[in-house]
Amino acid sequence: MGKGSRRGAREAQALAALRSEDEPARRPVGVDRVEDGYVVRHVGTSPTAYRCPGCDHEFAGVPHVVAWPEGDPDSRRHWHTPCWTARTRRRRR
Ligand SMILES: [Zn+2]
Predict the structure, then answer these.
(1) Which of 5, 29, 57, 68 is most buried, judging by how many CB atoms fall within 10 Å of its CB?
(2) Residue 43 near residue 64, CB atoms below 8 Å
(3) Which stretch of DSSP H or E encloses residue 43?
(4) 66 and 83 Cβ atoms separated by less than 8 Å
(5) Strand order from edge to edge, sheet including 77-79
(6) Distance 12 CA to ligand 1 centre (A)
């Protein structure tokens, strides 16, 4: 413990910058952005199996999305890309 605050400030700054230029179409794979209070990272394939919270199925070896509540990276979850997209569409009114 004790080395979190500086990193937190830097992260907050980076997140603010991401918010100010939110152009999803131009973002390369692997770059974080903020959606609905969640930090979203598009990642490539991984041999690790993850359970998608959107459809409750396990998957491995496919490009997918990692998302976590802003400031709480320990709560990150791995989603199928379409499941994440569907989730944000559902929440938006
Ligand atoms: Zn899914």
Answers:
(1) 68
(2) yes
(3) strand 38-43
(4) no
(5) 32-35, 38-43, 64-69, 77-79
(6) 29
- In the reported structure, the alpha carbon of residue 16 is separated from the centroid of ligand 1 by a whole-number distance in angstroms of 29
Query: Residue 9: what residue type?
Result: A
Distance between Cα 6 and ligand 1 center (Å): 35
Cβ < 5 A residues, ion ligand 1: 52, 54-55, 80, 83
Q: Is the dihedral of CA 24, 67, 73, 70 positive or negative?
A: positive
Cα 1 → chain centroid: 24
pLDDT value at 91 more than 70: no
Q: Per-residue pLDDT tens for 32-65? A: 889 889 999 999 998 999 999 999 999 999 999 9
Prediction pTM value? 0.63
Measured in Å, residue 87 CA sits from the centre of ligand 1 at 10
* pLDDT at position 88: 66
